[in-house]
Design a protein that fits this description.
The protein has 300 residues and is mainly alpha-helical. Helix content is 49%, strand content 11%. The protein has 13 helices and eight strands. α3 crosses α4, α8 packs across α11 and α11 packs antiparallel against α12. It is globular, with a radius of gyration of 20 Å.
């Protein structure tokens, strides 16, 4: 994501980055210098999130959990921020984290109440493949100001191809949780179906081609197929390394289940899916969530 963002911002802009993993930021700077020569603006490593917020007018965040997001904003808003470096432009915080909508709405209210700018939720879909290729889909929760929506959309399209404005703050996360609830279940179903077909003597590639030309087609079968040799570039091709971790899928499913309870929405499969992911994470470790197939005893 950051590489795509850096390559598309004007050369007069600076990209400030921060990560608690200092090796990651140093590696990023080295890679940008060697692979995007002549593209985008310069990159500077900030000492902490507060420094990023002080120096930038548009701030992107992507963190693992509600606790992490809240902690970062506690540090950013610990004291009044200085005036934006562009006096006529309010700061814009764009949070890509998958957290609960209520926490996100609270942060949006806090940022607005202390006149620190705008806060919008813009979780994404497309996985590591989409982030690398710049083909992510963003789900936007944002006040219905056409100018603000246009501003957010412009920066998001540096990293993706589609932006869905779903409504007020929190709406982007509502869409994300509904989508990831479906993803959690379809991933297990794809793994079970592929395992079933192979156990019945079918060829993996032919079965994958059949499913992806039929009514069973889904992202997990087409882009992230759990059987090696079916989806080029999928984590299954590299021992399920990288990709979207089982732990993150568990977290998103838990948030979706909590949101369902709060909304009074009946869901029947989520609890069992959560049990599956809990066992998969315990027995398979830190792997892409498609490793469910291997956990089921699928041939790899």
């Amino acid at each position: 994501m950051a590489k795509n963002l850096q390559s598309k911002i004007p050369k007069s802009d600076t990209l400030y980055i921060y990560d608690s993993n200092t090796t990651a930021t140093s590696t990023f700077v080295q890679e940008v210098g060697s692979t995007t020569e002549g593209k985008g603006g310069p990159v500077e490593i900030a000492a902490n999130p507060r420094e990023v917020a002080e120096k930038a007018t548009t701030i992107h965040l992507a963190l693992p959990s509600p606790t992490h997001v809240t902690s970062v904003f506690d540090s950013i808003l610990s004291s009044p921020l200085p005036q934006s470096s562009s006096p006529n432009t309010q700061r814009l915080f764009i949070d890509h984290s998958t957290i609960d909508p209520s926490t996100s709405r609270h942060l949006a209210h806090t940022v607005s109440a202390i006149s620190s700018g705008h806060f919008v939720d813009a979780p994404m879909s497309g996985g590591v493949v989409g982030a690398t290729a710049g083909t992510l889909t963003f789900m936007l929760g944002c006040p219905p100001s056409s100018a603000l929506v246009d501003r957010v959309t412009t920066t998001l399209l540096h990293m993706g191809t589609r932006v869905f404005h779903l409504g007020a703050p929190g709406a982007g996360l509502a869409g994300k949780l509904a989508n990831n609830y479906l993803l959690a279940i379809s991933n297990i179903a794809t793994a079970e179906a592929m395992n079933l077909g192979l156990k019945l003597g079918l060829d993996a590639e032919k079965l994958g081609e059949l499913i992806n030309s039929s009514s069973g087609r889904c992202w997990s079968s087409e882009v992230n197929n759990p059987v090696p040799g079916v989806s080029q570039g999928a984590p299954a091709e590299r021992g399920y390394e990288g990709g979207f971790g089982v732990g993150l899928m568990r977290k998103d499913l838990r948030l979706a289940m909590e949101a369902a309870r709060d909304a009074g929405a009946r869901v029947e499969l989520g609890e069992r899916a959560g049990e599956v992911y809990e066992r998969v994470e315990r027995e398979e470790g830190v792997k892409d969530f498609s490793v469910v197939y291997k956990w089921l005893g699928g041939k790899t």
